[in-house]
Amino acid sequence: MDALRAELTGAGRLEELLRADGVTDVLVNGGGAVWVDDGAGLRPAGLRLDGEAEVRALAVRLAAGAGRRLDEASPFVDARLPDGTRLHAVLPPLAPEGTHVSLRVPALRRWRLADLVVAGGLAPALLPVLRAVVARRLSLLVSGGTGAGKTTLLQALLGEVGPGERIVLVEDSGELRPEHPHVVRLEARHGNVEGRGGIGLDVLVRQALRMRPDRLVVGECRGAEVRDLLAALNTGHSGGAGTVHANTAADVVPRLHALAAAAGSSPDAVDAQLVAGVDVVLHVERRAAADGGRQLVEVAVVAAGGGAARVAVPAALTVGADGVLRRGPGWPLLAARLGPDVGQVGA
Fold it and tell me: From CA 50, how far away is CA 27, in angstroms rounded?
């Protein structure tokens, strides 16, 4: 019965991979090759689907299960399945080699900062620093590449928020599951098959501001919502947070410029709000080592720049390839914002 259900309404032969412990991503390339990431980087799954017909049937079936359309008139889909798995699929001719399917599995484990230390994703000396960031209600952005662990770190940070505070989450696809007693979640809504009825993150951020948040969190800033998030962080909502794709902490500024430009905001306006409303940038990376693990590698501060640069994001603490924690030029400013709680951190 399980096999029949998987073939009729589920992921078919991929179900076993999706249920395996530690799996975060299952990818099907054109032609049927299957790859899996179980925490140690992508590797062949030892499974191959039977060509384009089976891959396309799988993609169409999963899209239908999410209430979305996938055909020649609508050749790609980005949706969330009923169990929380995030689906992306694209059909030919957009994908000349055949239908591609990407499945992102929601994390079942609720990570805390102490868990990340044990797992090697967080240098032990950074634990009191991050706890002080949360306790001092510093507003922060978590930056990094795709699959670098931005959501995991943000979820762990939210688990340190006091139980008397109300956290309002705004996400495109619900992934954050912080271990906290008072969490309100808002999710964007995609348009119907005619493209109508969609509600984006920018609208939800404005709605969240009316819900008396103590902490406003945007799961991923990748569009016009960055303007509303920065505005919210400048209206007394300290301790807010968001994630953004960037190669380094310093690259967050040009990245926000590009995102805000789509919403009609000028770089000057973004810089002014960024300096006034964001205190810390935490940058995570996937390690180049064979284990492919994720790690917080930089804690940077946001400050007014000098000369032509209106905003500076100097590194305060960095974790080198040798695992040693070192202070950077932004350390005095970070230490001043955190107070005596941080102690003697870094070399």
Answer: 15
For residue 338, report the phi and psi dihedrals to the nearest 5 degrees.
-90, -25
Per-residue pLDDT tens over the stretch 164-202: 999 999 887 777 889 999 999 998 877 666 667 778 778
Least confident of 55-59, 94-98, 237-241: 237-241
Please give the model's pTM, rounded to 2 decimal places: 0.81
CA distance 31 to 281: 41
In Å, how far are 112, 254, 258, 307 from 311, measured between CA atoms?
31, 10, 15, 10
Rounded to 10 deg, the angle between the 225-233 and 267-277 helix axes is 40
Q: What sign results for the dihedral spanned by CA atoms 21, 160, 298, 168?
A: positive
**C-beta neighbour count of 2 within 10 angstroms:** 9
pLDDT, tens digit, for every residue of 306-324? 766 789 999 999 998 888 8
Residue 297 φ then ψ, to 5°: -110, -10
Say how far apart CA 203 and CA 155 lie, in whole Å. Answer: 23
The residue ranking higher by pLDDT, 7 or 115, is: 115
124 pLDDT band (50/70/90 cuts)? very high
The per-residue pLDDT for range 279-289, each reduced to its tens digit, is 999 999 987 55
CA separation (Å) from 313 to 59, 135, 316, 334?
A: 42, 22, 9, 11
Helix spans in the chain (H)? 2-8, 15-19, 51-65, 113-119, 127-135, 150-158, 201-208, 225-233, 252-261, 267-277, 331-338
Residue 24's pLDDT is 85
Are 254 and 280 in contact by the 8 Å Cβ rule? The answer is no
Other Cβ atoms less than 10 A from the Cβ of 99: the count is 27
Cross-strand pairs, 298: 283, 318
Domains and CATH numbers, the chain: 2-104 (3.30.450.370), 113-342 (3.40.50.300)
